[in-house]
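Supplementary notes for students who missed Thursday's class. We covered one full example, reproduced here. Read the sequence, then the structure, then the short commentary at the end.
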Amino acid sequence: MRILTTIAGLFLAGLLFGQGAGDKVLGKWYTPDRETILEIYKDGGKYFGKIVWLKEPNEEDGTPKVDDKNPKPELQSQKILGLVNLKGFSYDTKEKEWNNGTIYDPKNGKTYDCYMWMDNDDELTIKGYIMGMRWLGRKETWPRAK
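Structure (token representation):
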């Protein structure tokens, strides 16, 4: 009985440790050009990110920027500010990365498979890729917004 309790305790501690490590991605992040801040949050055990600040949130005529490059016509009028463009990430404690997610680029209207990792607490590296080939894609490092 003691062995079973010990094993259960270690399993629970492992889950809690993994949970805490995964949550260090939570917060606000600048894109490399520092023209956008995304907030990464957790919902239903998965990680998501939404655009919470734009250096230039409006078009020249003063109207809010919209997702006009979206391939779905019904979504082309949604505002960029507030747009959820990181979706469905899970934290992999073994690989120390957030994976199985997607990233949407409103500048070109395309969605890419994506994974993320942190080499330190103040930098998040994002890699979007296509056709299931992680080695084929684009990598960016996002600084934490203070």
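Commentary. The longest strand covers residues 110-120. Residues 3-18 have pLDDT under 50 and may be disordered. If anything here is unclear, bring it to office hours.
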